[in-house]
Design a protein that fits this description.
FtsK/SpoIIIE/SftA, ten-stranded mixed beta sheet, DNA-binding, five-stranded mixed beta sheet, 4 domains, single chain, chromosome partition, Rossmann fold, 10% strand, alpha/beta, nucleotide-binding, cell membrane, 48% helix
Length: 851
């Protein structure tokens, strides 16, 4: 007992092993045991004649080896069998048992189980050696002894020599049972007692069951006799009831016929009185399969253009030197593989099979529908079904997951109902998606229609119709979607569509690209007012210039007595008096004075250098004095399109200023010919705020990750069901109906070719000073206080009043008290420091006040 306690105490430190040790050891033992079991089960001596092992006369082994574990398995099983004989099969079985106990039964590693396993295998080997059992098996497998060398050496040569065969067998049986108990933990004596008790209980239960069965048989016979008697009585009663039911049925039928005749007569009277009281259901048209995914054949004329160059009218055009000979791009700049074979049409059998699956699935859930049209688009296929009378369409939408399972679709979208139709549409993504080239859209008649002032080629809908938007009618556009869903390609197609119609004197761009790389391809465009703005800190100055330009245009509209951009450009001009013909030199000297919008460059330079709106800060009297000059009223204004590629980055830099300026532009700039296109891949509520959404009704949503993002963009779900790669939902202006379309595709090579074409036509018209101002972040290097406007001086006086009252100076203080943006408040602080009214900043210490 003492030894046992010592053993237990010796095993206590094993509890300090890591928690994963038992599982790892168990899995390892199971794996080794399974490998060894397979090797021994498939052992054959003909795999062994290598290096003289195996005792087989033929020295050529089996090729390939019959052993499941190969050469290693053959060698391993041979050495186990040669050492332990047939008892060696107990070794892998015991290892698997220990592995299962360690890994899945919560057993702890102990020396008792290892010793038990070794004792079990060794005593089994000795028993086989003493009894000489399985000698024939050993000879067939070329094993010298049935118990191996261990059984022969220990069992025969030691135990049998000392105790004779009988004593050795008794001792080995006892040791074998002890090894079994140590390995498995089972008590054979108690196990036998439990089995005997269970046997006696089973025997008594069987006797009781026989008695109960006999009693049940007697009761069953009595019940059967009683049942026969009752059945006879019921048959008689049933026959009587049947006669009564037939008589009642005849009476009810007669009453129904009378009621039907009365109802028919009443209906005929009502129809005569009011023919539209009840109309027959209209007949469901015959279902059609419409394949709108095929490309249209393009115009192959290499010189073809969507728009021809407009004739310039004297005194009206903004054209200056470099724009007179500007040629619009042609279709030859857009790639189109003419050698591409015609695409195979849709497999009608497959489409009908999917539609039948949808109808059968709905009927299986008790929703009765009739098959309608099938429309295969570039990206999705729409299956239409007609709900039966009285069926709620909400029951169909509830089965969206079941329909997706039945059709094996990755994701589906259910339109219940399809806007403008009396059917429910089930949209499933196509396995083979068809790209929509931009060239095909530009060659469509709807793109060149005169009704669209600024046409945008967006894509094709599920019916194969081109989706052409009009930026002038939108008047602003929000494009949002997850990364890789097609947002950047959509922006490229929009810009390319504009370049195909407008020359630099008709439309100008202001591009904001915080990501730096998206719009650098357009850096050489002559349409740019300023170079592409990439620094988020400089965007506020550019937006303020746009607001200033908008206000300036409205003042000129009021002076000219017109209401909007189109009225100003198309207003009647006073006829110029004929002047005497002068020499060519005089005419040439007059031409440079007709530079287009000289204030555009100057006002942008001032706005970006000061970080504020230049002309708008001038007093109204001074502004009117400037407007009195004849040169201040141009003949025409160009469109201005502001494109912001990533709004989220700007909202993190200066959210208040960016949101305020975007809201002002979106609210008022339409009539001034200024339009805004905003793109973001982070459609969060703090990025696309309510103010921005309220002023930008037209939106394009690409695939997003959740229904919440879809609601932020479209105020409804649906964008989370898109399949990506240009699949989009478009909300047209003045409409609440979403249009699903496949976006147009334009490659980077095509964009570069178009930009190169435009760049070769004319040079860019912004000055070097504007470029330097943008690069310097919109700050003035000279810091001349004389350049401050009267409004800035007034704001500066208010700042001085706040500082003298509080006796402290900080940017946040000016922001709170005067409700200034961070940029303007920081600029006021810099001016005050330059005028020696406050001290310089010194870390977290407050500034010194000198006034």
């Amino acid at each position: 007992m003492a030894a046992k306690k010592n053993t237990v105490r010796g095993e206590e430190p094993e509890s300090n092993l890591p928690s994963w040790f038992n599982e790892v050891a168990g899995i390892a033992l199971i794996g080794i045991g399974v490998i060894l079991t397979l090797a021994m089960i498939t052992y054959t001596p003909h795999d062994m004649p290598i290096l003289g092992i195996g005792g087989v006369e033929d020295n050529e082994p089996n090729v390939p080896r019959e052993n499941s574990i190969g050469v290693v398995g053959a060698l391993l099983s041979y050495f186990v069998l040669i050492v332990f004989g047939a008892a060696g099969y107990l070794l892998p079985i015991g290892m698997v048992w220990l592995g299962v106990a360690y890994a899945f039964m919560g057993a702890k590693f102990s020396r008792r189980t290892v010793i038990g396993l070794f004792c079990l295998v060794l005593t089994g080997s000795c028993l086989l050696g003493v009894t000489e059992f399985l000698t024939g098996w050993a000879q067939r497998n070329h094993i010298m002894y049935p118990g191996g060398f261990a059984g022969y050496g220990i069992g025969t040569k030691v135990l049998e020599a000392l105790l004779n065969k009988t004593g050795a067998i008794i001792l080995l049986v006892v040791l074998y049972l002890i090894g079994t108990i140590m390995l498995t933990g089972l008590n054979p004596i108690q196990f036998t007692k439990v089995c005997w008790a269970k046997f006696k209980e089973w025997k008594e239960q069987r006797a009781n069951d026989k008695e109960r069965l006999a009693e049940k048989e007697s009761k069953r016979a009595a019940r059967e006799a009683e049942r026969v008697a009752r059945q006879t009585e019921r048959d008689a009663a049933k026959a009587e009831a049947k006669e009564k039911a037939e008589a009642e049925k005849a009476r009810v039928k007669e009453e129904k016929e009378k009621k039907a005749a009365k109802a028919k007569e009443k209906k005929e009277k009502e129809e005569k009185a009011n023919p539209q009281v009840e109309m027959d259901l209209k007949e469901i048209p015959k279902p059609q399969i419409i394949d709108s995914s095929q490309r249209k054949k393009p115009k192959l004329d290499p010189g073809a253009k969507p728009f021809e160059k407009k004739k310039k009218q004297d005194g009206i055009s903004l054209a200056t030197d470099g724009y007179e000979d500007y040629e619009l791009p042609g279709f030859d700049l857009l790639a189109y593989d003419d050698s591409e074979p015609e695409q195979a049409g849709a497999d009608q059998g497959e489409l009908l099979s999917v539609q039948k699956t949808i109808v059968d699935t709905l009927k299986a859930f008790g929703v009765d529908v009739t098959a309608g049209d099938i429309t295969r688009g570039p990206t999705i296929t729409r299956y239409e079904v007609y709900p039966s009378m009285g069926l709620r369409v909400s029951r169909i939408t509830q089965l969206e997951a079941d329909i997706a399972r039945a059709t094996k679709a990755e994701r589906i979208n259910i339109l219940a109902p399809i806007p403008g139709k009396d059917t429910v549409g089930i949209e499933i993504a196509n396995d083979d998606k068809v790209a929509v080239p931009l060239r095909e859209l530009l060659q469509d008649d709807s793109f060149t229609s005169a009704k669209k002032k600024i046409p945008l080629a967006l894509g094709k809908d599920v019916y194969g119709n081109t989706v052409i938007g009009d930026l002038a009618a939108m008047p602003h556009l929000l494009v949002a979607g997850a990364t890789g869903a097609g947002k950047s390609v959509c922006i490229n197609s929009i810009i390319t569509s504009i370049l195909f119609k407008f020359s630099p004197d008709e439309l100008r761009f202001i591009m904001v690209d915080p990501k730096v790389v998206e719009m650098q391809v357009y850096s050489q465009l002559p349409h740019l007012v300023v170079p592409v703005v990439t620094d988020p800190n400089k965007v506020v100055a550019a937006l303020r210039w746009v607001v200033n330009e908008m206000e300036k245009r409205y003042r000129l509209f009021a002076k000219c007595g017109v209401r909007n951009f189109d009225s100003f450009n198309n207003r009647p001009r006073p006829e110029k008096e004929e002047e005497p013909v002068v020499e060519a030199e005089v005419a040439e000297e007059a031409e440079p004075e007709e530079e287009p919008d000289p204030e555009v460059i100057e006002s942008i330079a001032r706005a970006l250098e000061d970080g504020e709106l230049g002309p708008s800060m001038v007093d109204e009297d001074d502004a009117l004095d400037l407007e009195d000059e004849e040169s201040e009223i141009p003949d025409r204004f160009p469109y201005i399109v502001v494109i912001i590629d990533e709004l989220a980055d700007l909202m993190q830099t200066a959210p208040a200023d960016v949101e305020m300026n975007i809201a002002r532009i979106a609210q008022k700039a339409r009539a001034a010919g200024i339009h805004l296109i905003i793109a973001t891949q982070t459609p969060r509520a703090d990025v696309v705020t309510g103010i921005i959404k309220a002023n930008i009704p037209s939106r394009i949503a690409f695939q997003v990750s959740s229904a919440l993002d879809s609601r932020v963009i479209l105020d409804t779900k649906g964008a989370d069901k898109l399949v990506g790669k240009g699949d989009m939902l478009y909300l047209p202006p003045g409409s609440a109906k979403l249009e699903r379309a496949q976006g147009a595709f334009v490659s980077d090579e095509e964009v570069e070719a178009i930009v190169d074409h435009c760049a070769k036509q004319s040079e860019q018209k912004f000055e070097e000073s504007v470029q330097q101002s943008i690069d310097s972040g919109g700050s003035s290097e000279e810091g001349d206080d004389n350049e401050l406007s009267d409004a800035d001086e007034e704001c500066l006086l208010k700042c001085i009043e706040v500082i003298t009252t509080e006796q402290k100076a900080s940017t946040s203080l000016l922001q709170r008290r005067l409700r200034l943006g961070y940029t303007r408040a920081a600029r006021m602080m810099d001016i005050l420091e330059e005028r020696n009214m406050i001290g310089p900043a010194d870390g977290a210490k407050p500034r010194d006040i000198y006034i």
